[in-house]
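Hello,

Following up on my earlier ticket. Below are the two sequence lines again, exactly as submitted.
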Amino acid sequence: MKKIEAIIKPFKLDEVKNALTKIGAQGMTVTEVKGFGRQKGHTEVYRGAEYKIDFLPKVKIELITSEEMLTQVIETIERAAKTGKIGDGKIFISPVEEVIRIRTGERGRDAI
Amino acid sequence: MQFELGITRNGVSDAKNLMARAASNHTSPREFLRQHSEMVDGLVRMAFRKAQSQDPSPSVCLMAVGGYGRAELAPHSDIDLLLLCSSSKKEHLPPLVEKILYPLWDLGLDVSCSSRSINECMQMAQSDLFVKTSLIDGRYLDGEYELFRNLYGLFMRRVLHRKVKNFVEALASDLYLRGQKHQDPAYTLEPNIKEGQGGLRDFQIGRWVIRANYKTDRWESILFPDHSRMLDKSLEFLWAVRNQLHLLSGRRQDDLSFELQEKIAPILGLGPGAQGVEEMMRQYHLSTQRISNFAQNIISRGLHEPSLLRRTFHFLQRRKIDDHFGIADGEIHLLDPVAFKRDPARLMTLFEYSQTYRAEMDFRTEEAVMEALPFIDDYFRNSEKVNQAFLSILRNGSTVNTLLMKMHELGFLSRYIPEFSDVEGKVHYDLYHVHPVDIHSIRAVEELVKLKEGLYQKEYPLLTSLITEIEKPENLFLAVLLHDIGKGMEGDHSLTGAGMVKRIGDRMGLSAEDNELIGFLVSHHLLMVETALRRDLHDEQVILRFANEVKNLNRLKMLCLLTFADVKAVGPEAWTSWKNTLIMELFLKASHVFEKGAVARTFLKAEEMLETLERSLSPEIFLAYSEHLPDRYLSCYSSGEIAHHIEMARSVEKELLLMNWEIEKETQAKVTICTKDRYGLFSKITGSMFLSRLNILEAQIHTWGNGIVLDTFWVEDATKNIERRLVQFRKDLGEILAGKVSLRDLLCKRKESNGIKQKVIPRVPGEVKINNQDSDFYTIVEVMGEDRLGILYEVSQALTDHGCNIHFARISTLGNRIVDVFYVQDEWGEKIEEMNRTDQLKRTVFSRLTPRESSPA
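Thanks for your patience. The regenerated structure is below:
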């Protein structure tokens, strides 16, 4: 089992979510996050006053997937989240030791 | 043991269910409470007598206390008993208590029983609020009546009617603390019907205060008949819901969870599904609001009922505002009891004074307002004096939220704006909206007031400065108050609301201009959130379309403030710094569009053009392409040309390059090129033209949203061989784009034969300007210099070498002078802003304006 964390542009959330649902992803966690990478923050000016935007708003989605689904899930996120411009985001993949569904106590793949 | 009291456990629950069914069908829920209590009374008495007969103890008395004492026993309410004895010798009591309790427990009843002497009761009642309040509701059940009478005589004299003020204060603090706790969104969505704000406990508090203060248990006697009838209905509704809560969950469940909301609504005859739930919760909120107001009102009377001395003092202190109102001790008092009857418009004057003097009205004046509500009729609603006063309250802005809330509580607001009554208590059946629409709207006004008072200066400096720039703030306040008014109706609430607001505005005598503005704000109140959260703010087209819809800076500012107020009022967590950043970015970018002003004409043309295209193109083609066409592109061509371009674009999937031309006067031609965008495309085109010795006079370079490039060039060949050169150009460009040959190779190969080498002494000084101010999306490179063959290729190659993507360009030639404008972004789609990069770019482009010794390659 793998955990996928993807940082994407906010307006791409619906597209990514729909694409993932279409390929059968069971669920995901979505968080509003802020940060910066290669795309840095900037300063906006309104009537002479400067308003600094240090951290850019992004959306983080997290989901757990089986090894077989992994490639497909990653490709789906990549395709749906891409605009080709700076700030499209990143995908992180890490191994997951165990998953437990609290209600039933199911473990492993059954709990995904 | 089972049959000790002549009934089985099942028998009890059957009886309960029978009564419950009767209650939900034809009798009132209160009737159920009474019947249920009576049934329990019978069982308890029987248990008591049985116990007494086994182990007689003469001087005891059995009492019902708490809710059971009031004979208001919901299906699974606790049954609290008190066994009273005369002396402190109570060794014999515990066995007796056990004997009473056991058979009742066997029947599945939640009974508890404490045993105390009269003295103990008195001591505890003096120190413990809970014991005190449970004793207020005490009721004699069985045993020695004399004991009960003694206790009550003492309790009333020594406890309840002494230090009344302390008692009221204790209750007020209980009310406040619970109110604080239950303000949490979780409690508002799934309220606790007993402990929650305006719940049954609040009602009891009101009743206890009346009991202590006015020595009567008939709470309705101190209210206006209308008021008490409404309150009674509210109470009845809560009881009905609570009975069902208990019956469905089979235990003392007072949390109105989502799951149970769905089950109860149909049982109460409110229809199935979300609609039924929304209606039930609407009634719930209205009911609890009334009860909450009642409790507050009674407590404030209890606390402020002035002594004779104070009253005299105030009388001397009081200041007259006019003949009808006076002010004393920070409160406005009605001096003339018939003031409202003579002239109902004075109701609005009262609120105006309340704002001007920053004083609340005393409770008697509040009651007078409620009593005067029937005077609010169409004449009142259309009265200029009234409406001007209302608008001036909004314009003034200070404490507007408190005033509106007071108007709302007293029932004034929904009489004055009847449309508002449709959204009272109206809930959104989701997890997001915490408050019903009426409360949400007033809270939104509150957020504006907070902004205006500078409370958000640190967190939201930009919004704080915006609210000071608004002209006619009354329009904004009115729009915020009414933004969700359409929620009571069918259909899209923004549009319905805008229609309703127009009628309200007409009635209030707003100018057509103001009315149009408010209508716009209401109908578009979701636009900004939707654009900021769901659209690419780095796409210029998105910003332009948004700005186009908003039309001007003043409306943008108002819309931004409305958006803030709306979202912030949804719940404490709704306006995150994340949302704030996105919405502010949209605001700033759109404001830049307006500040530049020039774009307005482009909008208009683009919009007209889209309408024309919609009529002339087939629907599916229009749908597939219209959203990709940039405004700048739309304003440059005729509808015929655009249709032709779309035709070309549809074939570009199959063919790499589409090109056609019209030759004019043998020496000039207009060339249209359609292909897919790629890095360095423009310099490849201009380079290929240079190869064929085509001189570029003018050009329009456009990139559509879907990556299709549409370029138009006006080229010249003085040798009248233009047709041949164009054919050659098409062949070269096709091969270059297909990757068969490289432009560089071709340039090297042909430089001799073409005789490209030219030496011209520039008579026009070159100039390169890099402008990052005029667009939020592109770096604008302006180039001026002397014209010569191939110059455009050199300049565009310089741009490409520096990683610039040319998104849009306008190329023109004036005599022997070129004036070219390029809108570029770097390879990441961002502007080129760092000083060293812009400097370098400027230097390189400038160096290409004069021909080099060697050939360009």
